Amino acid sequence: MELKTLQNKKQNRTGHSRNMAQTRWTPFFFLLPSLIVLCFIVLYPLFYEFWISFRNVTLLNLKSGKYPYIGFQNYIQILTDPLFYKTLLRTLVWTAINVFFHITFGLFLAILLNRKLPGKSIIRVLLILPWAIPQYIGAITWRGMFNIEYGAINILLTKFFGPNAAIPWLSDPKWSFIAAIITNIWLGIPFMMMTCLGGLQSIPQEFYEAADTDGASGWQKFKNITLPLLKPVITPAAVLGTVWTFNMISVIYVITYGAETEEAQILVSLVYKKAFSYFRYGYSAALSVIIFLILMSFSSIFIKSQKLED
């Protein structure tokens, strides 16, 4: 009897361990289809891009599939080209200005919406419309508003400041770049506004009540309560906003007619131009790898610096 009892206990333990193993691996089986899809749409293109960046891929040999290996020649051409550094500086300016105004205006509007306002639901819907509209449609709309003769912006400028106040937004590359910045700021504010609003609504009101009891001013409450508690929300949103803005080709392409001139293009539009105007696919792949390394380095350094501050 004792022997049978021991055998039954061993069988129960074996069955229990099998059930535990099956339960442990069940979530991974459910995630497996998504992982397979991600491998095909993310990892494979990424590795293929790295591969062709070391080869001479042009329109002449694209169909044959025989791409000569040229080592780091594409990277050397990029890093020794003054156009790359000018475009990189312009891209950094583009990204810094856009992200700064996204965070500033987004946080300001989130603070306003977090208070009691008449018709707050309608105001929130109106403010979130730029995020709901496709970027391409929004950029086309702004392009029409920047028309030198019939655009709403120049009509207002000439009405208030005279007929000479019209600005050649679309014909002058410098003004086209500024017009693209204005458009992208308008498109990016709602995302940051909704992110900050969600963070504000998660802050307990007891902190502000305690600060009121101590006689703290509005700026002191914002500096010592709101900003520190919003930091875990703003940090990933700022990183995402930086990556998105750095790679924002749709606005640049629509506002500046594909960034045909050097004064109005950023790195990602330069990649598009090299690939689909000059058909230098290996060169553009190498430039894409450099952009990827720049963004990955920025993201890791920024997140590590935030952790060190905490």
Question: What keyword list fits this structure?
Answer:
single chain, 310 residues, mainly alpha, MetI-like fold, 2 domains, 12 helices, 76% helix, transport
Q: Major sheet: size, sense and barrel closure?
A: none
Mean pLDDT: 83
State the separation between the terminal residues, measured CA to CA: 63 Å
Supply the CATH architecture of the largest domain.
Orthogonal Bundle
Strand count: 0
Helix/sheet category = mainly alpha
What CATH calls the topology of the largest domain is MetI-like fold
User: Which series of helices and strands comes N to C?
Assistant: HHHHHHHHHHHH
Percent strand: under 5%
Query: Which geometry do the CA atoms define?
Result: globular
Return Rg in Å. 27 Å
- The CATH homologous superfamily name of the largest domain equals MetI-like
Helix content: over 70%
Total number of helices: 12
The parts where pLDDT drops under 50 for at least 5 residues are none
CATH class of the largest domain: Mainly Alpha
| Structural domains: how many | 2
List the helices and strands and how they pair.
Blueprint: H1 2-52, H2 73-79, H3 82-113, H4 120-132, H5 135-145, H6 152-161, H7 173-201, H8 205-213, H9 218-246, H10 249-255, H11 267-276, H12 281-309
Pfam families: BPD_transp_1
Membrane topology: Multi-pass membrane protein
Family: Belongs to the binding-protein-dependent transport system permease family.
